[in-house]
User: Fold these one by one.
Assistant:
Number 1:
Amino acid sequence: MTCPYLAYRSEGDGQSFDTERAYCTAADRFVQAMRADVCNDRYDLDHAEDCEIYLAHADGES
Amino acid sequence: MSYESFLAGNPLVVTAALTGGVHGKEANPNLPETPEEIGRAAAAAERAGAAVVHVHARKPNGERSFATERFQAIDDAIREYADDVVIQHSTGGTGAPDDVRHQPLRTDPPPEMASLDMGPLNRYDHLTSENTRGLVDSLYDEMRERGIKPELELFNDGHINEVYGLLERRELADPLYATLIFGPGTLTRPTPENFLNAISNLPDGAQFNTLGFGRHQLPFATMGVLFGGHVRVGLEDNVYYRRGELAESNAQLVERVVRVAEELGREVATPAQAREILGL
C-alpha cells in the first residue's frame, strides 16, 4: 500500500513538469526521487517505518 | 598522492556527476533525467573538460531506475552525443535489493567504470543504505568479471578501513581509485584537516578523487587539485552555482573547476589520458 499522502501531479508548490511526479500532500511539495520509492513502498521500503514526514503526520503533528 | 604530485604536473581527471539518484528536477530544473538529456549533458560536460561522466538512471517521471535497459538507453545517448568520454555507472541504491544493485553492470558493452559504495550511510531520519561487505564483494566480483574499473566511494573515514579489508579479500588492479566524500550527516566532516588525514591514510599508490557536497564542492575540488588528486563536480552533488543561485548546467560546474585547475597550473586530462591514469 502506498503512502496516503502521495499524489501524482504535474503542478504544485510553484513548480510545473511535463510528466506527473510524486507529490507529498503532507509536506506540500514534490518529493525527491529516492523518497518517491519510500512513498510507493518499493523494494524493502515502507513509508510507515521509513518516512519521517508520514510519521510526524500520523502522530498528529503538522 | 600529495602536493608533490601536484608539483609533478600530473593531469587532473574531472568527473561530472550528471544526475544522481536522490534529488531531481524538483531541486533544480536543469538537472538531466531522461536519456536524451543525460546524453546531451555528458557531451557538454566533456566539451567543458570532463573526462568521466558518472550516471544514474531515472524513469520518465524522474524516479529512480536500476534497470539495465534504462542504463543502456543512457549509454547509447551518451555515445551518440559525446565524443570519447568515459562512462561510469552508479551501483548505489538505498533500499534496493542486492540483485537490483547489480543491474547497472549488465549493459552491452559494460561501462568502463562503476561506483562501489564501501559501507553504510544514513538517509533521511529512518533509512540507512547498508552496503554490506557481502554486497561490496559481489559487486566487485561482477565488475572484475566484466572488466569494469571500480570507483571506491568512501563516505567517511571508516570506509578507508573497508578499503584495506577489501584488499585483504580481493586483488584489486592498480591503481586503486577511491573517491573521498565530504559533507553533512554520515559523510566525513568537511574540514581541510580531515581531507589531509584521509589522503594520508589511503593505500600506497592509490589515486584519489575529491567530492564535496553542496557548498563544499568547489573548495574541496580545489584541495583535490592542489594535492595531486582528481575531482568530481556536478548537479548530483550540488545544485547551486553560488549561494541562492541554481547552477545552469553540469557543464557550468565543470567549466568552473577547470578554470581553477588551469589557474593553478594543473593540466586537465582528456578521456584518453584519464584511461591511462586510471588503468582502464
Number 2:
Amino acid sequence: MKFLCVECDRQMQFEERQLPGDGTLAAAFRCPTCGRVVALLTNPMETQLVASLGVKIGGTTIERQPMETVRGMVATGKPDAFTDEGERGAGSGTIWSVEAQERLARVPNFVRGMVKRIYLDYARERGIAEITPAIMDTARTELGLEEM
Amino acid sequence: MPLNIRTYRDLTEADRSGLVDQIVAQRRRVTDRLATVRRVLAVMSGKGGVGKSFVTAGLARALVRAGRATGVLDADFNGPTAPQLLRIPVASCTLHDGVIEPLVSAEGVRCFSMAFLVEDGRPLAFRGPETEGHVWRETLEAAALREFLADVAWGTLDQLLVDLPPGVQRFQELTELLAVPPAVLAVTIPTAESRDAVRRALRGAVERKALLLGVVENMVGGPFAGSAADDLAAEFGIPVLARIPFHPGDDMWDAIALSVRSAS
C-alpha cells in the first residue's frame, strides 16, 4: 500500500497514525513536495486484517514481543498461560502512576505481561520516568496497539 | 483525459511503514529460529479422524527413544491434542530473552500447542469484529503458525514434526513460511474415502515441491477395509512405512521411527 500525490507525481510519506478506539484506524500521509496530507481510514475489518498480518502501518521502533500476534489477538487465552522470567532490564527505574497501574490491571491476564513490557520499552526508549495514562495513550497511538 | 498515475512498483522511495520489510523480517525470524532444526516433517492427511496426532506423538516418542532430538509443533489450533498424546501436563509457558520455552515431555519430546494457551474447554476465539470473521481468521491462524515456528526456543533438533489439521491450507501456510518445503509423512486409514482425501493432499504437497517420505496406514485390522496405503504408494512412488494396528506397542513405533529415518 502506497500513496501517490498525482499532482506532484511524488510518493507520499507516512506522517502519523491514530486509533480512535472503535476498531477503526486513521493513517495520514504527506506529500514531500506540496505538503498535502491525505488520511487512510480503515473500517474494523480492514484494521483487523492488517493486525492479523502482524504488521503495523507506520512501522514501530519497539522490539517485537514473542508471540505478539497470538497474545494480542486470542480472546480465550488462559490467564496463567505465560510466566515472564526475563526482565532484560527493560524499563528499569520506570515507575507507574496509580492510574496507569489501574488501567494496566484491566488488561486481560493473557496479554498483560506483554502489554506491560511494551509500555516499559516505549518509556525506556524515550527516557520517560513515569508511565501515566496519557503516556499509555500516546504509546498506543504511536505503536498501533489497538485493543491494548 | 485519464490521469497519468504511476504504478505501485514504480514507487520505490523508502517508506516509514515498510510493510514489505516487516513481512520479510517475520520470515527471516522463522529461518533464523529453525537454523538449528535439521528437518521439518509435516504429518498430514487431508482427512480428519485418521490419527495424524496419534501417529505424530507415537513417532516423536520413538524418535526420542532412538536418541533423536525431536519437537512437535501442534498446528491443529482448533483441536489441539498433542500435549495429551505426549503426556505433557499443561503448564504455564516460560518467556525469557524474547523467546518462549516449549514444554517437554518426561521422555524428552519438546512441544508447543495452542492447548497451552487457550482456556480448557473453550474454543480458540480471536478479538475483532463480530462479523465477516472469515476474512481475517485464516490470516490470524497463519500468523499463529509463524509465531509458533519463530518464537518458540526449539533449540537443536534432528526433526520438528508438525502435526497438521485436516485439509491442505495449513500445509500451504507452512510451506510459505519455510525456506525449503517440509518433508511429508502421509497418514491414512485403509478406506477408499481416506485414500481419495489423502491423494488430494499429497498432490498439493507435490505441487509445492515437498519431499514425500512415505505413507503410514493407521487403524489396520479393524473395521476399516481397503488398500489406501498400497494405492497411494503406487501412485506417488513412495514406500508404505508402516501399517499400524489398533493399540500398537512401543516396538511398533520404534520400527516406524527407523523407517522414517531411513526414508529421509
